[in-house]
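Hi there,

I know you've been waiting on this one. I reran it after we fixed the sequence typo, so this is the corrected version. Both the input and the resulting structure follow.
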Amino acid sequence: MTTHAHAHPINPRKWLTLFAMTGSLCMILLDTTVVGVALPAIQNDLAITPLQLQWVINAYVLVLASFVAVGGRAADAFGRVPVFLVGVILFALASVWCGLADSGAQLVAARVLQGLGAAIMQPASASLVVNSFAPGERGKAMAVYAGIPMLFLAAGPVIGGAITQYANWRWNFWLNIPIALASIALTFIARPVDVRAPKRGNDFVGAILLLTSLPLFVWGLMQGSEFGWSNPAIVGALLAGVILLPLFVWWERKHPSPLLAVNLFADPAIAIDAAILFATQFAMTGLVIYGSIYAQNVLLFDPLKAGASLLPMLAPIIIVIHFAGRLYDRVGVRKPALIGTFLCVIGMAVQATAASLANYPLLATGMFVLGTGIGFVMSPVNTDSMSRVAPAQRGQVSGLVQTLRQIGGSLGVAVVGSAILLSHESAIEKRVEQTLPQEQRAPARELLQQASKGNRVAIDELAANAPLQIIEREVLANSVAIGWWICTATLAGAFIAATRLRSMPHPFKPHGAHKPSV
């Protein structure tokens, strides 16, 4: 069912459309958390390095961040239904390949395609939900569209842990296939309303700048720990990112039909909203990924217990997010943003302290505080950013803010991962010197280095060496703590930004009807 932007017929099969679109978002969010708990099993099975293990996560997040704006423009140009179907099919095929991968390189390549499929289908699915419901029903529909996938996000570590422990890590990817098939079938049955947006000019230069600058910068951050920070390729990639990213912003500000409406950051409140979401995604992604590894390699939890160990952070988000939305309706964004970012800082600092102590009860306490804080931040800040512009601009604000949020997740994996790897390498050297006799140091260093590079013989030999395992766990615990202190500092920046945020006179009063908000 296709129509033009000025007409808004309501689809009689709107609830089938909602279920189809909700299923697609469930896959996207589930793949954010379900894979993290399987990382140690993937590393043991495919004998891949810790850096490749980071790429298993960041290949997906980085491509999603880089291409989601392009996916939104493609949906406008070619129709949301066909673009959505292409995205779901690509995601499903990539999930099959992930499950069949027999090397780290294959798995990373398949994750790239998964991220591309997610970036294509996500903007189209949200638009199809909005277009299928009357204005008075859209809030309820979007609550279902966003709320049910959040349950999958929270349950992802437990689902992934159970699958990894009782079946095989590959089924974490194959789990997407029935969901994808159901979404495709429901889409054909429901025939969603496909409102064609007015034609806009192309922004090929902006797309090229975004799709080169961000991947190059993140690649340089992640590979620097392996190639060396003075390596010409690393220096070149980082410089390219530093130069091309501001060039992209400059180009978008002057383009009549930009890929991302960065000119909206002229409103300081929108810029602060985006910065807060960037910081929270930075910290949450780094915690979910490395929290799963920490639980299994330091606390020695099995995969199921490791997945369940993250629930103290994820469960409060589901509960608090609804309370925070009602609080926003009453008092605006400033109070929930300040409460949320403050709790995030405290919760992350507690976890960083607990990580070096290998103390799970203290770790769980920090997770609970952090999750409560994120619950206070997510809904009010998201809603506030879109409430500050006219309805016609809300799609542009959403695309801009969500892109920056995804970039935060990608940089979280890259920065936290690089810090952990660098501190781990130097701390292993120091710890070996402190604890082992002279004649044992060189063989121990070689064994630990080879095991970290995925050498199967070294991994098996390390598994039989209890003293070196203790050293490895102690060093990893301290290295993860360093990564989480970086997350704490990032969240502290979000709290400082929130202190400059001012609520509108009324949360739903359009931008322009009030004095500057900051």
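Quick highlight: The beta strands are 2-4, 194-196.

Best,
R. S.
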